[in-house]
């Protein structure tokens, strides 16, 4: 089959272990935590800590968490990312082609760029699946995509595109997932927690608060779209790793404090996670729910990720062709 000249949309997600085992998790964490964009300590300081402590103890605990959410078809993040590719191809029709690559794990950006060099002659549009910008996600995804494209001799044909934090299709997809959750809820939540992945405070200062501004922009657009009062919503940050200060308020602390305030029905939406994964299904869907109920909460409504919603898929096609 001759190479195609249509635009190609390359969706870049974080990545996932291949299996819910300590060995597979150790391999994944080694690559993830070795990225200077994720942990920016000097290598001579961080590598011994990573090898001696983190990769000896953490993979067993993380693998157990992965087993609690693993599906028959594999990792939720991987299956959801593949579903997003299918949705984009459906809505893009014959105007473009699409595939996915992962910043960590396989198919890697190197693997996919090498494949595209053999099969594709048109422009390649790289879109990280992170609407809120920070070097630890969008920054490292673009940097690695450039390196991979250069090695595959594709660089002049690669275009980098961000999903804006208030992109209408993205916000409409979030609002639709919220309405879907309400349809099956026993009662409407009294309070809404809008949770994003955290980053160290130091990173956010270095990037001139770009990440927190994007999170606030997404939250404001979402609350407007679902007509939810600002005084009954809290923007928070989750998934802290390591001892240094991270963005606050912490999602777990916010949720755990609600019952003492007389709030026993809570909704939680995670706009920064476009696909389900460990942070949504286990950290929030299992652990945060259990802690909320243990503190006296009754109704915990977790809003599912946007994933392959048609509004987002249509927006991704528009961004790729724009």
Describe the structure concisely for a colleague.
The chain has 322 residues and is of the alpha/beta class. Among the domains are: 22-69, no CATH class; 168-302, Rossmann fold.
What is the overall silhouette?
globular
Mean pLDDT: 97
Name the helicity range: 40-55%
Helix count? 11
CATH class of the domain at 168-302: Alpha Beta
Number of strands: 8
Topology, element by element:
Layout: E1 8-13, H1 22-33, H2 43-69, H3 76-92, E2 97-102, H4 109-119, E3 124-128, H5 135-151, E4 158-160, H6 168-184, E5 191-197, H7 201-206, H8 210-225, E6 233-238, H9 251-257, E7 265-269, H10 278-294, E8 299-302, H11 310-321
Parallel strand pairs: 1-2, 1-3, 3-4, 5-6, 5-7, 7-8
Helix pairs in contact: 1-2, 2-10, 3-11, 4-5, 6-8, 6-11, 9-10
What key phrases describe this protein's structure?
single chain; 322 residues; alpha/beta; Rossmann fold; four-stranded parallel β-sheet; 13% strand
